[in-house]
Amino acid sequence: MAKKVSPPSYCLHKATGQAYTRVNGRMIYLGTYDSAESRTKWAQIAADWSAGNLEKYGQTVSIARLCVAYTSHAEEYYRKNGKLTSHIFRVRSALRLLVEHFGNLQADKFTPNHMERLQAKFVEAGLARKTITEYMNVVRQTFQFGVTKGNVPPAVWQGLLAVRHLRKGRTVAKESKPVPPVSPFVVIRTARELGRVTASMVRLQYVTGMRPGEVCLMRLCDIDRSGDVWKYTPQQHKTEHHDRPRSILLGRKAQRILQPFLNRSEESFIFSPNETLEPATECVVGRLHYTDCYSSLSYCRAVYRAAKRAGVERWSPNQLRHTYATCIRKRCGLEAAQILLGHSRADVTQIYAERDLRTAEQVVREVG
Fold first, then answer.
1. pTM
2. In contact, 314 and 301? CB cutoff 8 Å
3. Residues whose CB is less than 8 angstroms from the CB of residue 368 and which lie 6 or more positions away in sequence, other chains included
4. Fold category of 184-367 in CATH
5. Is 39 exposed, middle or buried (0-12, 13-18, 19+ CB in 10 A)?
6. Once rounded to an integer, what is the mean pLDDT over residues 234-255?
7. N-term to C-term CA, the chain
8. How far apart are CA 95 and CA 266, in angstroms?
9. Are 142 and 178 in contact (CB under 8 A)?
10. Are strands 26-32 and 18-23 parallel, antiparallel or unpaired?
11. Higher pLDDT, 333 or 64
12. Mind listing the pLDDT tens digit for each residue in 283-334?
């Protein structure tokens, strides 16, 4: 169980009759015990503790306090469009284990040997090797944050970089299972159990390879329909914080799937829980009030439930990207698959990107 991180306590120094507290391992006298002045000073220190402003009280902090400060920073930094990203849950999980085993240790006393012991604790906890690598990176980032705030000597963080990550076949840590493609048979069986709107989302993902979040947030204003191959530019995507553009090409098959949903305002979400398709006419009709668009979680949950009703193995919408990538790679090669899935590198030049886009358009014309 993780150790509780508490604010500095208001204590009595019996020998002198003064109030004191401890911050960063340093005793700070506040004045006569239980006086208004001492209570005011203690309240200010507690406020600084909550805000992470501890530089004035010394250069080092406990690891528990450093983790509290970094978690607060991460909750502000790892946001996209006002919402926390999934990385924050990784930060919380990694630091919970760090505090559990080394919370009372001063941050400047944390050595590479402590880091290796923490790595061993991750293995003992039954975490997968790749998860351990991610957690170790979070710990390093926490100490790097401490360096920038003046609470951790730079040599401490540099020493942690010397600890090697676990290698496949050279550790007892288990390996995480790779995400496999889902078979067309399973997709068809599941789609029969889905609602008309979510079934269209699955079909669209199957023929385009877009991410679940990208299909959930589709709007007409984000689609350029001027050519024979439409171009969908998501309003937000996974790698936008790296300044990487993302364009999804929609061929004949994708355009036919979208056709019943085009009679709406430009700013409306194409796939909405508030609507369904009339089976007889294929027209969009209203339904009970829900949110304006699906989230990746609600979409994934709908697929899980449909797969269970269909009596097939459980699968997630993200596996459709793997199915699409496998198909494109077999037919058109690895480069085309990387382009269509948006797996571009940061050092790709503008000319190279344009040439790739023309190649991708030709592929989409052929496969739909």
1. 0.61
2. no
3. 207, 251, 252, 253, 254
4. hpI Integrase; Chain A (1.10.443)
5. middle
6. 71
7. 54
8. 44
9. no
10. antiparallel
11. 64
12. 555 555 556 788 888 889 999 999 999 999 998 888 888 777 777 666 666 5
* Dihedral (Cα; 237, 239, 244, 247), 10-degree rounding: -30
Number of other residues whose CB lies within 10 A of the CB of residue 361? 16
If we measure between CA atoms, which residue out of 236, 294, 226, 292 comes closest to residue 264?
Answer: 292
The tokens for 9 are 């306590």
Q: What does the domain layout of the chain look like in residue ranges? A: 1-58, 59-177, 184-367
> What is the Rg, in whole angstroms, of the alpha carbon atoms belonging to the chain?
27
Tokens of 149: 């705030």
Who's near 147: CB < 8 A, 6+ residues apart? Answer: 153, 154, 156, 157
**Is the Cα dihedral 307, 310, 313, 318 positive or negative?**
negative
Does the structure show a pLDDT above 90 at 139? yes
- Burial letters 319-358, b for 16+ CB under 10 A, else e: bbbbbbbebbbeebeeebbbbbbbebeeeeeeeeeeebee
In the predicted model, what is the mean pLDDT of residues 27-41? 87
**Tokens, residue 64:** 């528990």
Comparing C-alpha atoms, which of 74, 62, 51 is closest to residue 25?
A: 62
- Which ranges of the chain does DSSP label H, i.e. alpha helix? 36-51, 63-77, 87-102, 112-124, 129-148, 154-160, 184-191, 196-208, 212-216, 252-258, 296-310, 319-332, 334-340, 350-367
Question: What is d(CA 129, CA 164) in angstroms, rounded to the nearest whole number?
Answer: 12
Pick 59-177's CATH classification: 1.10.150.130, 3.30.450.20, 1.20.1250.20, 1.10.3860.10.
Answer: 1.10.150.130
Q: Are 121 and 166 in contact (CB under 8 A)?
A: no
Which residues lie closer than 8 Å to 188 by C-beta, 6 or more apart? Answer: none
Give the H/E segment covering residue 28.
strand 26-32
pLDDT recorded at residue 58: 57
**pLDDT for 85:** 80
